[in-house]
Amino acid sequence: FSPFPTSQLPTVSPPPMEETYLELYLDQCSAQDAPTPPRSPLLSPSVPYDVDMLTSSNPETAFNPQLEEVTETSGSFSAVDLSFLPDELSQENKDQAVIRSKHEIEENCKTQSQQTTLPLPSQLDTGLALNSSSGSSSHSHLHPADGNSAQPSPEKPHSLPLASITPMTPMAPISECSGIVPQLQNIVSTVNLACKLDLKKIALHAKNAEYNPKRFAAVIMRIREPRTTALIFSSGKMVCTGAKSEEQSRLAARKYARVVQKLGFPARFLDFTIQNMVASCDVRFPISLEGLVLTHQQFSSYEPELFPGLIYRMVKPRIVLLIFVSGKVVLTGAKKRSDIYEAFENIYPILKGFKKA
Amino acid sequence: MSGGGRCPDCGSAELVEDSHYSQNQLVCSDCGCVVTEGVLTTTFSDEGNLREVTYSRSTGENEQVSRSQQRGLRRVRDLCRVLQLPPTFEDTAVAYYQQAHQLAGIRTARLQKKEVLAGCCVLITCRQRNWPLTMGTICTLLYADLDVFSGTYMQIVKLLGLDVPSLCLVDLVKTYCSSFKLFEASPSVPAKYVEDKEKMLSRTLQLVELADETWLVTGRHPLPVITAATFLAWQSLRPSDRLTCSLARFCKLANVDLPYPASSRLQELLAVLLRMAEQLPWLQVLKLDKRSVVKHIGDLLQHRHMLVRKAFRDGTAEMDGQGQGQGLGDGDVGSSSLELPAGKRPASPALLLPPCMLKPPKRVCPIPPVSTVTGDEDISDSEIEQYLRTPQEIRDFQKAQAARQAAQSVPNPT
């Protein structure tokens, strides 16, 4: 897979195969509802070259906030007018509109490739080495940033018009576009037993409890099935950790409440809430973290001197992802399972764009 | 302690620092004339008496600013001076520190954190102006732990909402390499070890670029890679004399600390170079190993782009096409062909992947069976009772606890 080469665009109109994929994609778009366009992290910064990003939720409604900004960026892209894409398009309008834009973009790129030097964008893109001195897509951060002393504005997508309209791969239905399901590893939940507890008595009467008041003011209790640990406080509040699913967490919390009941306390089971869910998965290809932090600066934090992974704080849904060079991804901060899945479907196309070629 | 001035009254040089009502004063010990008075206000005569009073210490500015903030700002300025940063950096760092001090979480933090915060502000300023300052350097200057520093750094970047660009590798290479004391002969550095700075710098840059292209830099601390690259560059410029020198000895000669991961980075870099060497026809016949390949680093670097492309096939494409196990299997085949006799076709390309993906997984994580737990199942009494102590056990436990208390309270005779 190679990044979208600006100097090697096909000069003929798209072959018939691409037309059908176009239609597939457009069917997708029209079938989707359009709630308030989310400020998806996909589209605000500079976008990678793979068009699979469009398979995430609400591609076309999310386009709109970006299109105005696109037309104001570097002069070479000013001719591309993408404001024709309204929220709702009828089928044939879409076809015409998209094909028209494709031609425009191709013409634009032809003129671009004729220019010898293009103004270097203020944010260097990995792979989009327009000067193409070296054939390989070496990391742009090795080349000193040109006068980039001030914080670069994140709203300067360069390749957005080029990559976004021409689908290069067949569109799969949104629900299975990545084929990878993150596995839940840990669930943290809390419950209120609604009675004052005598921790010393609990530690004395229960085999599976440890209590060291000088170290920590709670009893640490463990059960074998589901394999979990609970912190039980004297106020009656309890934290249950270690379960691999929401149902297991609830069952475990109920078991702890039963144990406390059997010890003679009038324990109830109030306000059971899942506080945090941690999941992990493997995308199975190496990820260029330097590139990712360059283009998604406002969401990412990559400090190799401190931690080998990149910390990506997704805004919607509000999830923190730890992304490693080996392709392993850890997702945390979710209160619902759907948040995790949504976050992963959001990040997967971004990561695919940073597979080094 | 005298400040080198003279008393304006009697001209004596015996000026003594004295505190009167907790206000510092410079007093002539001969005639008792007060030469300068206080640090909060200055007069023209104070400055005339060679007591340099900076604006930040003089009237007015400090009235609004708390003492701890003053101390912090002074620390920021001192750090900038010690690091010999350009003057504009100092102003930016001070501005960041003042901004940070507005935040409630910082104002009430411990002194240790405020000290570290001064370093964070300097680091952020340097990063934004592409000045290659590593966190290790700042921590050494602050006598702080890296974990304390990292916590404060991440917090302040988040709270102030700053965009901090990554460390610029090229500049870091230049600064770090220049700090190696190998460019002039000295009693500790024999003549055959002395090297020309420009040649070493350019070769090191090429090696670091090569490491970057072959996934050796991503996710790792940048400095050990540069140390390994500098060492290889230095060795390869005069292999006959320098192959006998080890990495540790090299760092000692050059008066530079050897970071712990540098030797493993060195091995990885040599492995990459060996793979590239297999693609050069005149090197295939030589059956190079990790020592002999150093002699040919010049050649390898000259053709590095082509060689990397030939020597490694795209690891990412392999992942798509086949399963991961299969792809790695091919990679192993590629590596085993090192043993092929000379004259055969060049080794099939190895996978271009980060080292963590090339190693076999330490333990295979089994996919957990799909659990059919609903969370509302009945909980049997027997299951709960297994966790409770019987009355007899309780008595035994209490006895044991009492005995332990007694044993602990009796002092140890020895």
Automatic annotation (TrEMBL), chain A:
<keyword id="KW-0804">Transcription</keyword>
<comment type="similarity">
    <text>Belongs to the TBP family.</text>
</comment>
<dbReference type="GO" id="GO:0005634">
    <property type="term" value="C:nucleus"/>
</dbReference>
<dbReference type="GO" id="GO:0006352">
    <property type="term" value="P:DNA-templated transcription initiation"/>
</dbReference>
<keyword id="KW-0539">Nucleus</keyword>
<feature type="compositionally biased region" description="Polar residues">
    <location>
        <begin position="110"/>
        <end position="131"/>
    </location>
</feature>
<dbReference type="InterPro" id="IPR030491">
    <property type="entry name" value="TBP_CS"/>
</dbReference>
<dbReference type="InterPro" id="IPR012295">
    <property type="entry name" value="TBP_dom_sf"/>
</dbReference>
<dbReference type="Pfam" id="PF00352">
    <property type="entry name" value="TBP"/>
</dbReference>
<feature type="region of interest" description="Disordered">
    <location>
        <begin position="30"/>
        <end position="61"/>
    </location>
</feature>
<protein>
    <submittedName>
        <fullName>TATA-box binding protein like 2</fullName>
    </submittedName>
</protein>
<dbReference type="GO" id="GO:0003677">
    <property type="term" value="F:DNA binding"/>
</dbReference>
<dbReference type="GO" id="GO:0005737">
    <property type="term" value="C:cytoplasm"/>
</dbReference>
<keyword id="KW-0238">DNA-binding</keyword>
<feature type="region of interest" description="Disordered">
    <location>
        <begin position="107"/>
        <end position="167"/>
    </location>
</feature>
<dbReference type="InterPro" id="IPR033710">
    <property type="entry name" value="TBP_eukaryotic"/>
</dbReference>
<dbReference type="InterPro" id="IPR000814">
    <property type="entry name" value="TBP"/>
</dbReference>
Automatic annotation (TrEMBL), chain B:
<comment type="subunit">
    <text>Component of TFIIIB complexes. The TFIIIB complex has two activities, alpha and beta. The TFIIIB-alpha activity complex is composed of TBP, BDP1, and a complex containing both BRF2 and at least four stably associated proteins; this complex inhibits the transcription by pol III via its phosphorylation by CK2; YY1 facilitates the TFIIIB-alpha complex formation. Interacts with TBP; this interaction promotes recruitment of BRF2 to TATA box-containing promoters.</text>
</comment>
<dbReference type="InterPro" id="IPR054078">
    <property type="entry name" value="BRF2-like_C"/>
</dbReference>
<keyword id="KW-0805">Transcription regulation</keyword>
<dbReference type="GO" id="GO:0070897">
    <property type="term" value="P:transcription preinitiation complex assembly"/>
</dbReference>
<keyword id="KW-0862">Zinc</keyword>
<keyword id="KW-0863">Zinc-finger</keyword>
<feature type="region of interest" description="Disordered">
    <location>
        <begin position="317"/>
        <end position="345"/>
    </location>
</feature>
<feature type="compositionally biased region" description="Gly residues">
    <location>
        <begin position="322"/>
        <end position="332"/>
    </location>
</feature>
<dbReference type="Pfam" id="PF08271">
    <property type="entry name" value="Zn_Ribbon_TF"/>
</dbReference>
<keyword id="KW-0479">Metal-binding</keyword>
<protein>
    <recommendedName>
        <fullName>Transcription factor IIIB 50 kDa subunit</fullName>
    </recommendedName>
</protein>
<dbReference type="GO" id="GO:0005634">
    <property type="term" value="C:nucleus"/>
</dbReference>
<keyword id="KW-0539">Nucleus</keyword>
<keyword id="KW-0677">Repeat</keyword>
<keyword id="KW-0804">Transcription</keyword>
<keyword id="KW-0010">Activator</keyword>
<dbReference type="GO" id="GO:0008270">
    <property type="term" value="F:zinc ion binding"/>
</dbReference>
<feature type="domain" description="TFIIB-type">
    <location>
        <begin position="3"/>
        <end position="36"/>
    </location>
</feature>
<dbReference type="Pfam" id="PF21886">
    <property type="entry name" value="BRF2-like_C_cyclin_rpt"/>
</dbReference>
<comment type="similarity">
    <text>Belongs to the TFIIB family.</text>
</comment>
<dbReference type="GO" id="GO:0017025">
    <property type="term" value="F:TBP-class protein binding"/>
</dbReference>
<comment type="function">
    <text>General activator of RNA polymerase III transcription. Factor exclusively required for RNA polymerase III transcription of genes with promoter elements upstream of the initiation sites. Contributes to the regulation of gene expression; functions as activator in the absence of oxidative stress. Down-regulates expression of target genes in response to oxidative stress. Overexpression protects cells against apoptosis in response to oxidative stress.</text>
</comment>
